[in-house]
Every structure is written in structure tokens, then in C-alpha cells.
Amino acid sequence: MEPVTPLEQALHAARALVLADLVAGEVAEADVVSLVEDAVAERRWWVEQWPDGAAYVAGLIAQDVQDALLDRYGRWPLCPVCGTGDPHALDVEPELGPDPHWVCHKAGVKVAAVGALRSATGGMASS
């Protein structure tokens, strides 16, 4: 058996973080998990072309899944911070950088690291 490469480690870690956030939002249905798998496959090619981008892949996969969910189901994850006004989605920051976080631009706060939405939402549905 071949050892797991740093590239595969980064992709698997990113997949796990995004899946954790989907589970926290109670939206980890089979078709949504397929969106994660699609995003991982696409980012595999991207990070093969730019190996130094491995540290950024978690945030990029989170954004890819967020975009795919918006197209099919609606905004995700909804902001757990703002209790009034129109529901709005959180954004990933930095857009291209290590240690991605979900942020609410309306309130100007970091809500949670990618992979840690459960701590911010208490597992509430966010779709």
C-alpha cells in the first residue's frame, strides 16, 4: 500500500471539514455529499497544478459547495449571529488563504472556522 500524499491528506481534511459543517447544518443528504465529492475532484486537479495551494483547499472546497448549494437549494450556511432582518449566508474568508473561517459581513464578525460551524450554530438547520 502506498503512503498517502500530502495532496491527498489536504483534500481528505478539507472534505472532512466541509462535511462537518454540512452535518452541523443538518443538510448532509446524499445528493449534497455528492456536491462535496465533485468539489474535491475539481480541486484535486487545481492543487496538482499548484501544490503550494494545498493549504487553501479547505476554504475553496467550502466555497465550491456553498455555490453549488445556492444554485440547487438556496443559501448555506445561514448566519446564526444576526437575529433580525433578511436571512443571509456566511462567507468564507480569506477567499484564497490558509485557516478559512465563516464570517458574517453584515455584523463584521468571524462566526467559526470552516469545519466548526456546530460550535456556532449548536447544530441548527441552516438551509
TrEMBL record:
Domain of life: Bacteria
Species of the source: Streptomyces yokosukanensis
Listed name of the protein: Uncharacterized protein
